[in-house]
Design goal:
Order of helices and strands: EEHHHHHHH
Distance between the termini: 91 Å
Largest sheet: 2 strands, antiparallel
Strand content: under 5%
Helix content: 40-55%
Length: about 220
């Protein structure tokens, strides 16, 4: 391999550059591969780079008033079409959350409804035909009938008293039933007592179609 000299002095020997010689078959020797040097620093993560482009992130609001003020300021900076689109998106998200809550998805349930024990209690209540569930419609009928006259009011008052007494009796029985069933199925559970019985009573007193989450079992089904 020949060497080219840069300049005419002897001191230029340090700058000799190798030149490939021609081989007998006309091919040249391949030059040494080019070495790429590093940047000397690690490549930043994508989220870090994006955050630097967006600028500093405002701290989270400390109070509800501050959060409301931020929402008002954000709405003022948007156009009318943007505000409508944001409102429609919020309504759609709220509707999706409610539908999943009614379907019984654990992630979207209220804290009072979470847990396998509460789901089992709901199934127990929904599988029964509870007399206490008739209280609300019958109470409305009795209240409307009180305007018919003083004699009717006496009978209405007596009927409501009897209904209240039956509700208390059925509530006690239902509370003991669900507590016994939960202890049998979940012996290591910490739930039980008055809280679990009251949860069952409140659900039983609601009209079946208005219960949330929606019933998963039909009346009379084995649970």
């Amino acid at each position: 391999m020949k060497l080219l000299r840069r300049g005419g002095s002897d001191e230029s020997a340090d700058h000799e550059v190798p030149v490939p010689e021609a081989l007998p078959d006309g091919e040249a020797v391949a030059a040494a591969p080019k070495v790429t040097t590093g940047k000397g620093r690690p490549t930043p993560k994508r989220r870090d780079a994006e955050s630097r482009r967006r600028g500093p992130v405002a701290p989270a609001p400390m109070t509800a008033k501050e959060a409301r003020e931020r929402r008002k300021a954000a709405r003022k900076s948007q156009s009318k079409d943007q505000r409508k689109a944001a409102a429609a998106e919020r309504r759609a998200a709220a509707s999706e959350r409610r539908n999943r809550m009614l379907a019984g998805e654990e992630k979207f349930l209220l804290p009072r409804d979470r847990g396998p024990e509460r789901a089992y209690v709901r199934d127990l209540v929904d599988s029964r035909r509870n007399l206490v569930g008739l209280f609300m419609p019958l109470a409305l009928v009795l209240i409307m009938s009180m305007f018919l006259g003083p004699v009717v009011q006496q009978y209405v008052t007596l009927a409501m008293f009897l209904m209240m007494l039956l509700m208390v009796i059925e509530g006690i029985y239902l509370g003991r039933l669900v507590n016994r069933k939960v202890r049998e199925r979940y012996p290591d559970s910490a739930q039980g007592g008055f809280g679990l019985g009251w949860y069952a009573f409140v659900r039983a007193s609601q009209i079946r179609k208005l219960r949330a989450p929606l019933p998963r079992v039909k009346p009379g089904a084995a649970v």
